[in-house]
Design a protein that fits this description.
This protein is an alpha+beta fold. The protein has one domain: Creatine Amidinohydrolase (Alpha-Beta Complex). It is built from 4 helices and 14 strands. The strands form 4 sheets. Strands 7-6-8-13-14 form a 5-stranded antiparallel beta sheet. Strands 1, 2, 4 and 5 form a 4-stranded antiparallel beta sheet that branches. It has a 3-stranded antiparallel beta sheet with strand order 3-11-10, with no helix packed on it. Helix 1 packs antiparallel against helix 2 and helix 3 packs antiparallel against helix 4.
């Protein structure tokens, strides 16, 4: 299903996006050395419910997972990049943490992810990898406008990540979003330009470049959810929800300082 949102729905999408941006910004500030991932999950629950919003994750049970996700935010540490379930783990200096969050506000969803390093350490390879995903995301958003095709966005993302030296996995990528978190069109993180669905005003997309340091292969934890790099290398993930406008694209999930 591909939804084109009307003005009322777009207004709710902006509310959802602002809440996602605020929660991710808050959790980044709270994620210090010694913070437990389960506390991040609890704080996220408190903020979602306090805003009168709904979690897209807690009851989420797709075919590729194992039962309901059961938590309010994804918390991937170091080699865990996607669908990472919060667990009893205290963050250490130098950990690379990825937070991925989606919420519903009055029936419309927004989805975003950030990766950052905890504490004072700044491993150069981790910094470069995070920056590569952010740059690929920015390039795709700059290219998004009516008439552009999904393959054009995929090509921009893949070219940017490839130029930075990272292998690209196309199994999981961006997606349409609206009244549900995951919709068509699927937006792989690499592809051929000129192919796929043509973007239209009112379309919401969640664009999400992610990479692993030295592999494109994933392995899944015993929890049936958490996806890690098969080699144990570090990973990074950046995501925004955007709305296609008559003139280009509007980012809905920016942090509150922007």
């Amino acid at each position: 299903m591909i939804e084109i949102l009307n003005p009322s729905q777009l207004a709710r999408a902006k509310e959802a996006g602002a809440l996602v941006g605020e929660i991710l910004h808050t959790m980044k500030q709270r994620a210090v050395v010694g913070t437990n991932l389960l506390d991040i999950d609890a704080w996220t629950k408190e903020m979602i419910l306090g805003a009168g919003a709904e979690s897209c994750y807690v009851d989420y049970a797709p075919s590729f997972g194992r039962g309901p996700f059961g938590h309010y935010i994804c918390t991937g540490v170091n080699d865990a990049v996607l669908h990472a379930r919060p667990r009893d783990y205290a963050l250490a200096d130098g950990d690379l943490l990825t937070l991925d969050l989606a919420v519903l506000v009055r029936g419309v969803a927004a989805d975003a992810a950030i990766s950052f390093i905890v504490g004072e350490s700044r491993p150069a390879e981790s910094v470069a990898m995070i920056e590569a995903t952010e740059q690929a995301l920015a390039a795709a958003i700059a290219a998004a406008r009516p008439g552009v095709r999904v393959g054009d966005l995929s090509h921009v993302i893949g070219a940017s990540l490839g130029a930075a030296g990272y292998p690209v996995n196309t199994e999981f990528g961006g997606h349409g979003i609206g009244s549900t978190m995951h919709q068509d069109p699927h937006i792989p993180n690499n592809g051929r330009p000129g192919r796929g669905y043509k973007l239209r005003p009112g379309l919401l997309l969640a664009l999400e470049p992610w990479v692993m340091q030295d592999t494109a292969e994933l392995t899944v934890d015993a929890d049936g959810w958490t996806l890690r790099s098969v080699t144990g290398c570090r990973t990074a993930h950046s995501e925004h929800t955007i709305a296609i406008t008559p003139d280009g694209a509007e980012i809905l999930t920016l942090p509150p300082s922007f």
